[in-house]
Amino acid sequence: MACFSRLQSRFLFFLITSMLFFEVSKAGGKGSLRPEACDYRCLAASHQMPRLFFCSKYCAKCLCVPSGAYGHMEERPCYDNWTTKEGKPKCP
User: Fold this and answer.
1) Residue 57: CB atoms within 10 Å
2) Which keywords fit this entry according to its UniProt record (predicted)?
3) Which pLDDT tens digit goes with each residue over 80-89?
4) What is the model's pTM?
């Protein structure tokens, strides 16, 4: 019986984690001025999990993304100035 409850707890953890990821992966969600542009840029990134997280966070913070799927960061100063501890851009 204890094994069954362990299985249930793992399933519940997976379910909650999946729901949180789904909320993060809606890149052009609330606050974005152009949700389709956010979706296009965020979904084109490699390393989907971390990129989607930061891209979604960016869309909520800065409300817009540069044109295209990569680069052109100089178009949006808010986007361009967001870097990691190593000085690399957080967003694609």
Assistant:
1) 15
2) Gibberellin signaling pathway, Signal
3) 677 778 877 7
4) 0.40
